[in-house]
Amino acid sequence: MTTPVAVTTRSSPAEKLGGSMADQESSFPAPHAQFRGRCRRLGGLQPSCPELRTELNLLLDQLISENYSGAEIRPEEICTLLTQASRLVPPSQEHLVVKLCQLIHQLLNQLQVIVDEPTLDTLVSYTCQALYSCSPWTHPEVLLAMSALVYANGPQCKRHLPELLGPSGLLMRYSAPSQPDMELRQAAVHCMSSLCMGLPGKPCLEQPYRGVCFKTFLQTLQCPRPPEGDDIVYCMLLQSALKGLQYYLNGEKWSSGPDDLLGSILGILKKFMFFGVPGVIEEVPPVLYPAPLSQYDSVTVVKSSTAAPQDTPEAGRVSASKKRKSHGRDRKSGVEGRRSEAEDVQEEREVVPTRGQASDRWSPRVQLVSGATPSPSWKKGSSDSEVSDPEGGMQGKIRLYQARVRLSSLHCFLSLLKCVEKRVLFGYWSSFLPDAPTPGSASTLTLLTIVLKDPSPKVRAGSLQVLSALLDGSRGFLSTAEDVSVPRQAFTPLSATLAASLRELHRSLSLALLAESSPHTLTQVIKCLAHLVCNVPYQRLRPGLLSPLWKQIRPYIRHRDVNVRVSCLTLLGALVSAQAPLTEVAQLLKSGDGGGASEEGPCWLLQLCMCLVTKPRDGAHSDSDSATSPAHRNGPAAMEPLPVRLEAMQVLALMVKGYFSLVHNSLLELGHLCNRCLGEEDAYIQLHGSKLLQELGSAITQLYRAEGDSCLPLPQVSRCVVQFWSNVLNGPLTAALQDELHPTLQTSACDALASILPQAFSQLPDKSQVMCMTMLLGLTYGGNSAAAVRALGVYVLFPCLQEDVMFVVDAANAILACLTDCSSNVRTMAAWSLGNLADTLIVNMELLRSEVSDLLLLKMLTAATQASRDKDRVKSNAVRALGNLLYFLGPEQIVRPQFSSPIEEAMHALTSTVCSDVTMKVRWNACYGLGNAFRNPSLNLGSASWSADAFSALTGAVASCRNFKVRINSAAALSVPPLRQNYGDAAQFARVWQALVEALEGSVDSADFLEYRYSSSLRTQLCQALLHLLSLCQPEDLAGLTPSLSGHVGSSLVQHLTEDGSPAAEGKDGAVLSVPWLRVSAALPSFSQLDAALLSRQVRKVARRGDGGAGGSGSETVAPSREGSETQTENNPRESQIIPK
């Protein structure tokens, strides 16, 4: 039964004008008028009428004989009719009860109506009463009507659930395995599955009744087939149980229960995936276990295709009475809703291949695969005995119902994949995915067996969907696969098993691709290959997997079916994006259409995609639905369908991203393509053109960042890039930037404008530069300010604009305006841009200190302080900007009264963020900000009121924070102050020293394994901070250093300092500071002269670093707060161009 929706009808003109009922009837089509007339006749009957039974019998026959598909009948009319009929038909009139139940089922199924709660309560009570009082021969029809009533209405049946699903409930008795009547059992199980059905966003059947139904479904599927019974009814019973299990899983998040419960369900599903497949013997264990090894089942695949397969033990032994009953059931069967006779015939034709089906057509293609096995068994023609069998019609119907069972099992498996965690299912992969074939061993049943052997294209497509769902999101699990060309050892590791399985998947899906003739199933094969390519670690496997696939897919690019062409482009996009760049894919891209290498000229895939986007379609490859497609109504010069063009644009973007070195020669042609797409009327084409332009800009920037890896000399690349951006900026990009009707396109255009190479921007004409800056500044005050302010954050780092004081000031005002926006996304982008602007202030400190007004600087400091109280995404960039702004303040500004309070608030914001319970990224950015603030000598570090709090926050973070990056940045900040007086009195100096020593001792202890990779960097930074303190210590500080420099602790500390304290590079200039190590060694006689010499040597190395000591160690050892592209150092400002995440 398909998911019903509420049917609404439009009021007729006669109703609006208040005409008579006869006028209203005449205005409706015949089914509507007849239905309403019979409703009025039924409403006029009374229980006391003498001709009530005759009139009811006639009215019910007339109502049942109508076809209501597509009729505009309001749901409330149906509810009124059924409620009135239930009042008039007493349970004692069994023939009328059966007809009423048939009417209920027909109306609700054909019109897809869910009855309201009062009607539901009335009719469920009526059907329960009929089950108690009527003869058993009526019960299947009554249960069928009940299943239509309770479909997706389980939560509204609370009053009747104990009567139906209680320990001795009606449905529990009828669905028990001991029930002799299989038809009655099927109807009861189907009714329970309807109770479990839930609509999206609506509540499901409550516990414990869901669990009762679940156990019944499992029990039904696990019970053996009764020795006597109709084959079709048994198939319908299995299908109802599988549907019920699917509905249960759709509304349930899988929780760990008994160990064998998931294995039992998987065993059941695997068993019925092969139910009735010709030539396959079902030998599946009842329980599957999670193991990387093969299951213990032994399966034999019968290869003979000349004899008619026996699908079930009872196939062909259907009695005449059962045949008659099954024909009557087919008319009102509700397993999948009402199906027309034509649909059954069509599906039967799909399941049973015609004789000699297309074998010659595909035989040349099969020869393309070396060592390929013959065509799948379903491609072979039927035998003469099957064609001439007088019982062929019934056998075909049985095969049709068996295919429905297999398809229901696959749909249930899909629902299971959605509710069970991926990592749990990885252990069961060996039960459903093939391993490397072993000569002489029996074949095992896997999903690929269905793909290659099932006669139904719908079932093959369903198995491919399950396989795609299994592969989706499995990249982490498959990353352990490794293909090594060494002889097999005594055992096979998991990596080798996975690699062999992946190779077999490629081989089997290639066979399916060559043999498939159904366009819908062919589309699923190609999509499944795309999922496989996206998740396989080709860099860890031997080359050669992609080349055959690449050659096989190319003929399908010109397939007649548009869905096949789109899926082919999707697969090509997966090939060029999988672990790019791959050497094998690069060679395939260089090869021409003939397969030979073509080093010169544009890439063939690039030419193909550009032709699909820009050139008229070839009439020889028209679609099957060309008569109704918009492309063919436009004449012979019609373009490719929109999905094909969009997918081709996506393939171009992926090629540019992964293999720009192969397409850079066509940069100008790609620019013209982007201009053409941006100039079209279709918004989707415009958006994909803008996305391609953005990828081109990013690829050009990455090419320049990779020093020495450019494929062309730098001047030639530069001229080409400048010409490219000149053409783009003179094209329709400006119109896309101003298109307020399509904000997504506007955002993408802003991102494309932000991807300009800084060196190319400086060589553009002045009018183009002014246009870019003016457009972005204007958009920050419009409705799409997030992308515009992010682009401004990129532009403020351009070297050619960092000295443009007017632009810096205008950008600062625009960013400050966006920081007060109500959207958190806009504020996040504005805070990131403010951090980049603060980096620019530091880079050009000498110039901009005299040009930036105090008022603007005060606004920036206040705005950054307020933003540090915002959400973590905003806060992480705000604290970064605060540190740089405090560093930028000049002495004349710090002494002014209006700056004193904002400075204290800014320092308090930084120190409180370091100590607060926020994300680690925010904390290490705050430590980095404090380190930058300490660089300003005018802030009077050590004597200011906030100094003690700042040192306390940093020492607490360096000693106790569980995140090593926070500790690295806090240690770097503690090593910034260049003078002894910056650390305060001797007690403060000792606390800083002790915190660093404790952090050094605990640098190898971490509960999180992910932090271990940073332990070496942490020890290096801690040792440099300690050596820096040693180079500054005075005699009065020795008392605080004594406990850590004496005894065993002191020896361990000396070992750390001498092994891990060597800086990466020593400064070439700068005078050696006076080292008070002689005073330390004199006060601590336990130190040996060798220890003193080694440690003194390290102190001298620290002292030789430029700018008066170790003030810059925080940014030299590690790149503080670079994670997530939220913090950039002064030496590489262009790293700010990455979008914050």
Q: Can you give a write-up of this model?
A:
Residues 1-29, 304-393, 1101-1141 are annotated as: Disordered. Residues 320-330 have a biased composition (Basic residues). Residues 404-585 form the DUF4042 domain. Keywords: Repeat. The chain has 1141 residues and is mainly α. The radius of gyration is 38 Å and the shape is elongated.
Tally of strands: 0
Q: The biggest beta sheet, please?
A: none
Given helix and strand content, the structural type is: mainly alpha
Radius of gyration: 38 Å
Strand content: under 5%
- Number of helical elements: 59
Overall mean pLDDT stands at 78
Which properties best describe this structure?
1141 residues; mainly alpha; disordered C terminus; HEAT6; DUF4042; ARM-type_fold; HEAT repeat-containing protein 6; repeat
